[in-house]
Amino acid sequence: MSVIGMFVNTIPLRCQLDPRWSFHQLLKHVREILTNSLEYSYFPLQRILAQHPNAIKPAFLDTFFEFLSNENKNSKNEVMIGESRLFHMPISINISEDEIMSKIDFILTIQFESNINQLSCTINATLDLFNPETVHKISQRFRSMLEQLFTSVDNDQMKKSLYDFSLSLSDERKLMQSMNNTQVLFPSFTCIHHEFVYQVMQHPQKLAVELDDQSLTYSELMHYVQLLSLNLLNKQGIVPGEIICQCVERSLLMVS
């Protein structure tokens, strides 16, 4: 009874990413941080937090990563010490099929089954802070990152910078492409001033030009375009109707 407890001391670590690093460089950096911090493992977390009075509840204590490894299929995470049998108690406990009790707000658990050489990932998040849709999106992005990292055996892909990998999902990329596709096809035989007049007739009160705090509707823009074209015509004298269209077109380009 005198030795019952949690024999774990949490060590706060900080990992600053370099955007030029590859995934392997990141792993090497994290391994160096963990190895170098072992000499401070005796220092209690409570004393570290006491030096920072504003850190009443550190955010990093609400996020947990757990790695479990089953060496053989008969193992049930139990250890015998004399006549005492010790069991591994997971951070998350299934109360029922639809309810999980956990002391951590967000947990990523990766379990390795050595007999079938397979990794499985589980995300548990408290519904008080996360919507199920949000957790599902996080899991999809995590899976997408794993696929980008490990599905290719190309050396160039393995040397790829971390910031070059995309967190966007396929449906999100399609949506962004459709939103950014602002090209409009006009008939080749239609002149620009004809299209402008058509827009004026269709949407006279809609905004056509906006700059800082100033804006013009299509009808207002048409008025100023006519003034500009008349001014150009007065300076050049009377010209045939075809040249008048060219002047109007030129004035539109100057306004745009």
Describe the structure.
The chain has 256 residues and is an alpha+beta fold. The protein folds into three domains: 7-56, no CATH class; 58-170, no CATH class; 192-255, Rossmann fold, CATH 3.40.50.980. The protein contains eight helices and nine strands. The protein has helices spanning 23-37, 45-50, 132-150, 155-158, 170-180, 192-202, 218-236, 241-255, and strands at 63-70, 78-81, 84-87, 92-96, 99-102, 106-113, 118-125, 207-211, 214-217. A three-stranded mixed β-sheet has the order 1-6-7, with no helix packed on it. A two-stranded antiparallel sheet has the order 2-3. A two-stranded antiparallel sheet has the order 4-5. Helix 7 (218-236) packs across helix 8. It is elongated.
What topology emerges from the helices and strands here?
Elements: H1 23-37, H2 45-50, E1 63-70, E2 78-81, E3 84-87, E4 92-96, E5 99-102, E6 106-113, E7 118-125, H3 132-150, H4 155-158, H5 170-180, H6 192-202, E8 207-211, E9 214-217, H7 218-236, H8 241-255
Parallel strand pairs: 1-6
Antiparallel strand pairs: 2-3, 4-5, 6-7, 8-9
**How many structural domains are formed by the residues?**
3
Q: How are the strands of the largest sheet arranged?
A: 1-6-7
Biggest β-sheet strands, sense, barrel: 3 strands, mixed
- What is the terminal separation in angstroms? 83 Å
Query: Shape from CA axes?
Result: elongated
Structural class designation: alpha+beta
Total number of β-strand segments? Answer: 9
β-sheet strand percentage: 15-25%
Helix content bin: 25-40%
Overall mean pLDDT stands at 77
* H-E order: HHEEEEEEEHHHHEEHH
> Measured on Cα atoms, how large is the radius of gyration?
33 Å
Runs in which pLDDT lies below 50 for 5 or more consecutive residues are 238-244
Helical region count?
8
